Every structure is written in structure tokens, then in C-alpha cells.
Amino acid sequence: MFGVGSPDARLMFVGEGPGADEDEQGEPFVGRAGQLLTQIIKAMGLAREDVYIANVVKCRPPGNRNPEQDEIEACSPFLHAQIAAIRPTVIVALGKFAAQTLLQTETPISRLRGQFHALGEVAVMPTFHPSYLLRNPAAKREVWEDMKLVMKRLDEPA
User: Fold this and answer.
1) CA angle, residues 90, 31, 148, in degrees to nearest 5
2) Are 95 and 70 in contact (CB under 8 A)?
3) Which of 46-60, 106-120, 135-149 has the lowest mean pLDDT?
4) CB neighbour list of residue 59: distance below 8 Å, 6 or more residues apart
5) Residue 66 gets which letter from DSSP?
6) What backbone torsions phi and psi does residue 2 show, to the nearest 5 degrees?
7) Which residues share a beta bridge with 127?
8) Across all residues in the chain, what is the average pLDDT?
9) Nearest-angstrom CA–CA distance, 135 and 77
10) CB atoms within 10 A of CB 125
């Protein structure tokens, strides 16, 4: 599954991989988690068309299980090519797999979130995945704090 959004996006969201809804529609983040991501994007004063949305793995793992290391490694060159083509200012890494893959770390998402990390010239903000927020609504406040930092970074001069 390819990404979707503006080829000139300054903000890129990277998730784990497609779920059943995404697999069916051929677009990332269209299920319940995607609807929540769209609300977050709107709350930031943007539209989905203004950002670029991609996933670490490009096809749905069987049984919607977590992606395995060899699957992540097989898809990583494509993800990095997407990042190079879009050239965002900020990437929001949605959840453990996106954050750990982009930052090449095993540090838990709970310790990574809330601060920027570097991926070359690109600032990466790890935060909780929207599907996590659906199960743990209290974490929405932490994600919003992360998004405020992202908005501030995007407002800074290049």
C-alpha cells in the first residue's frame, strides 16, 4: 500500500501498517484509527490533503499481527525513499513500530514521545498510535501536547 497526501507536505505521519479497512480501500488510515487521525490533523488546522501519510510496512500482516523484523526490513528502503521524495520538515511516528523503525531503537514509545529526535535533517516526533488512543482515551492529552510541539516546529522559519 502506497502513501497518500501532498507530495509537498511539510508534515508526514508514519504508522505501522495497513489494517483490514486500509487493505480493502487501498489507502492508509481509513478505519476508526484513521478517522481519529483525521480529527487530530484537523485540530492542528490542516487537512489530510496537506500532509503525507504512510506506513512502515506496506501490506497487512496475516491476522493483523504485529509486523515481524524481516517484514520491516523489507519495507524500510521504500519508506526511506518516500521520506526522501516528500522531504518533510517533521515526521510524526505513530506508535511503537514507526518510532522504533525510524529511530532504529528499542526504546519504548512511552519514553520516546514528547520530544523531537533526528532522522538526518528531519525532526521526528514519536507519539501514541491512534488505535492506542481508541483503547486508552486518557492518552489523547499526551498526543495533543506532542502535536502542539509539532505545530510550533512547523511555524519556525526554515
Assistant:
1) 30
2) no
3) 46-60
4) 1, 17, 18, 23
5) P
6) -80, 170
7) 94
8) 91
9) 31
10) 23
Strand partners, 4: 53
Helix (H) or strand (E) holding 12: strand 11-15
Reduced to 3 states, what is the DSSP secondary structure of residue 94? strand
C-alpha distance from residue 110 to each of 54, 71, 113, 129, 134 (Å): 22, 24, 6, 11, 16
The C-alpha cell 506532542 sits at 146
Cell of 105: 531503537
Total residues belonging to the chain: 158
Alpha-carbon distances of 59 from 17, 107, 111, 152, rounded to whole Å: 7, 25, 28, 33
Q: Which DSSP symbol is given to 121?
A: T
In this predicted structure, the answer to whether residue 130 has a pLDDT above a threshold of 80 is yes
94: cell is 505513530
The structural domains of the chain, ordered by start, are: 14-153 (3.40.470.10)
pTM for the model stands at: 0.93
User: Per-residue pLDDT averaged across 48-57, rounded?
Assistant: 94
